[in-house]
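Practice set, problem 2.
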Amino acid sequence: MTVESRPYAVHPAADAFPLLGGAEYATLRDDIAAHGLRMPVVLTPDGQLLDGRNRLRACEELGVDPATVVYEGEPVAFVVSLNIARRHLNENQRGMVARKLANMRHGGDRTSEESKRSIDLLLPEISITQAATMLNVSPSTVKRAMAVGKAAEAGLIPEQRVKDIEQGKATLGKVMKEIKQATEQAKVAEVTTQPVEDRFTLMCAPIATLTLDALVDAIVTDPPYPREYLPVYADLAHFARRSLTPGGSLFVMVGQSYLPDILAMMTPIIPYHWTLAYLTPGGQATQLWTRNVNTFWKPILWFVHGTYTGGWHGDVCQSAPNDNDKRFHHWGQSVSGMCALLEKHTQAGDTICDPFCGGGSTGVAALATGRYFIGSDQDETSIITTRERLRGIP
């Protein structure tokens, strides 16, 4: 009898584990060729292959008639105990196995037509926590593995990337970054295909009286730094409180000279979260004559309206070298730097507001990276300049 003459349906618990490959499989096949099948293939009472997929594959290639035995106990725990003991799977591979087990009942596949008609439906489902415990991984690892599987089903990543993790050729962390990047690119494409006029709104108003029609996801702005403008920072904090979505962020670029004063004015109004370092490499040093300092960076104060629920972020971003663009405003920032800030700390499809838009660099960066933009300035000339720049974006 050859394997082809009696094909076996593979039990889903067995199918959750990756097949052997390369040298491991070659060693198994050579051993069977030399000594015969030492360990029989294990079947369920209804004839599903429970253990021995690799041995059965080798027998098929060698023309060996495989011996079989029947196991009548609970199949999932049996399969896991065998494979955990004899397979050298890393944490990522075990997580990928656990995500499949979490879709089963203790008796087998909870979605198959056979299971729907069988007594197995009376058995409890394997929870994510139980699957994680069985495979000695954390529930968060199982959830990440599930997210990878769903991303492959949605076409965000190739199905091969799932197999790469299962075979130990890639990590969950690396593929999750690929998913995030693919999701962001898809959203950027969705936003940027819209007419540019539909992606921004401009208004002329001082910060103290500025009111928006809807809440925004983030405020990214660069108010003036001289001492006489310090009162606008309290106005900005009040504006952020009434304009940000719950959990939304305010990123305000400031000079170092009056940093303690600015914090003292803003923190009673909106909670301080962190300080980012905005680097300006190349020949962009600002000479602070009153302090005898050449500065190559700016603080960006990060405030959050309510409780921050976003992901992890690095606290350094920078403009391109020598990208000190003052063509559109004498206090203008580089588009490269604003793009870096937006891409790191906001998401495509977000609505970004700059209530001190000046020459429009934040708006240009927002539209270029697939965000929507609301800009305001009390200077009508700045609004005209910004509108011209934004209309020129393809």
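Problem 2, part (b): a different protein.
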Amino acid sequence: MAQLVRLDDAVLQAVSSRDRGRARAFADEFAAPNAYGDGAGEHGYQRLAADPDVEIVYVATPHGQHHAVTRAMLEAGKHVLVEKSFTITGLEAEDLVALARSRGLLVMEAVWTRFLPVFHGVLDAIERGELGEVRWVQADLGFAAPYDTRSRMWAPEHGGGALLDLGVYAYSWAFAALGRPRSVAAHGSANELGVDGLSALTLHYDGGAFAQLATTLVSHATRTATIAGSEGVLRTWAPLTNPSGFSVERADGAYDVRFDDSVPLYAYMLREVTRCVQQGLTESPTMPLDETVFTMRLFDEARRQMGVRYPNDELRATVPA
């Protein structure tokens, strides 16, 4: 949030939380005039949606609440930036995208890695042919998270688990190098509540290329991505969420590319959202909505194969057709 308040052409107007005290403390810390929390039979986010001075909302609730909160904001005429994962299910994602498009509103998934200069530097290297024809991608991300089934990381009602919390970052590098996969084969290990602590996805592409992605909440990981082609190999530096550079190895030599890491990392994403709203854009070309929906559908299939289900999977009938 400190990076948001540093934008010259944006103002932090209000904060909403399930706890009124936390909302007020947060608002005071960042000089926001309004703080909303549960009270008087009304949820804080509903009061936020009714605030006429709020133009765009950043939804950073647990995953399980993304659909309901984002839908309320869109129905209230707000633009919305939604923390990853965008939703729990592909159906929820399709519903939000359809609603935003029908209302002429911006909605975007907050995969901040996609907006970093280093990410686009890797794209440029691939497009220049530095690696030749890309044939294989490997990416892993994770950490050993404290095990507490009440926390959002592990609770089914919050959409906990390694895949939904971390998978979009690993997948972003595969998509950058190879585009949309033809199919996915998924394996994972789940706890007694059915939440995955470890997931492994193999993505298959037309022409024989493939990607291997691993996310974990039960072990450490290298937190790097490797993109291998017919002419060379590119390795991001750790962590792959915000590497300060990457290394390229080719038969004719090797080199490193470093990027300026002094700019606040969320600033690029927040700058893009502000630009889109100012220019009347309802979709960012850097984070297209069709790609977000495809990713959630891909994760639906991966979860089906792993046997990971959430309460939101049972809410299909509540999403308007």
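Answer key, part (b): The chain has two domains: 14-112+267-288+307-318, 113-258. Helices lie at 20-29, 44-49, 66-75, 90-103, 117-127, 162-178, 267-278, 289-306.
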